[in-house]
Specification:
Shape: globular
CATH topology: Rossmann fold
Helix content: 25-40%
Radius of gyration: 18 Å
Strand content: 25-35%
CATH superfamily: P-loop containing nucleotide triphosphate hydrolases
Distance between the termini: 31 Å
Order of helices and strands: EEEHEEHEHHHEHEHEEH
Strand order of the largest sheet: 6-7-8-3-9-10
CATH architecture: 3-Layer(aba) Sandwich
Largest sheet: 6 strands, mixed
């Protein structure tokens, strides 16, 4: 498999008054095409910072991000914006749907932002909404959908531009257990059916068990990687690693 995303000695420092915070301290990370990777660690471990670096939402203090063969440090801000718009899909904890738009219009939003006509992609929008089980709700606005349904719209939107990689930041963090399970099953199935690549940040061992492998962060560093056995990954197995690492 080819690497879709790679970070090399990735570092991020923040200045908070007179205190320097090292959010990332030399992270080497590779994601292959078609993988579903979970990134785990305690609050403050650098999970979301890493995700933002990988998606071009923030710039590293040192090190390098290569996304789809493009070295982000060598691109202008406008060029990074285009790469992010066309090659990366995002799923956030709080859905981020526009309340005045229907589900179909929210899914089409990345296409419109990229200057494309949603009418030219109507079949794909319908296909994605069918894939997430909301084909019969495409004309509903967010306040007419449950939290789980809104996150399913957000997942469909993340895949609208056929991105090279989808980055999900705590996608079940704002959902109840039942809705969270539905979203995780959907994200896993969508990844496989569309042959897509997904990196998901989570603190939840149950969520991480849906991934193909789990990378653990602690104090801004990768400290371990967990690969599945014959029966896949289990939440108990992940919890045992977390306890061993004192996460």
């Amino acid at each position: 498999m080819a690497a879709i995303l790679e970070t090399t000695d990735l570092r991020k420092r923040y200045q908070m008054g007179k205190v320097t915070v090292d959010a990332l301290q030399g992270v080497d990370f590779v994601v292959q095409q078609g993988e579903f990777v979970a990134v785990m660690g305690p609050s403050g471990a650098g999970k979301s910072t890493l995700l933002h670096m990988m998606g071009g939402l923030d710039t590293p203090s040192d090190g390098e991000v290569v996304l789809g063969g493009k070295r982000l440090a060598h691109l202008s801000d406008d060029e990074i914006t285009i790469v992010r718009r066309r090659q990366v899909g995002f799923v956030f904890q709080f859905f981020n749907l526009l309340p005045t738009l229907t589900a179909a219009e929210n899914v089409a939003l990345p296409l419109l932002i990229d200057g494309q006509r949603s009418e030219d992609h109507a079949a794909r929008i319908d296909e994605l909404l069918d894939l997430v089980g909301l084909g019969d709700r495409k004309e509903r606005k967010p306040d007419q959908l449950s939290g789980g349904e809104q996150q399913r719209v957000a997942i469909a939107r993340a895949f609208a531009n056929d991105p090279k990689i989808v980055l999900a930041d705590e996608p079940t963090g704002n959902l109840d257990s039942k809705s969270g399970t539905t979203v995780l099953e959907l994200l896993h199935r969508t990844c496989k059916e569309l042959e897509a690549t997904v990196v998901m940040v989570t603190h939840d061992p149950r969520a991480a068990s849906y991934a193909d492998r789990v990378v653990f962060l602690k104090d801004g560093r990768t400290v371990r990687e967990l690969l599945p056995g014959d029966g896949g990954l289990s939440p108990q197995e992940i919890m045992e690693v977390m306890a061993d690492l004192e996460l």
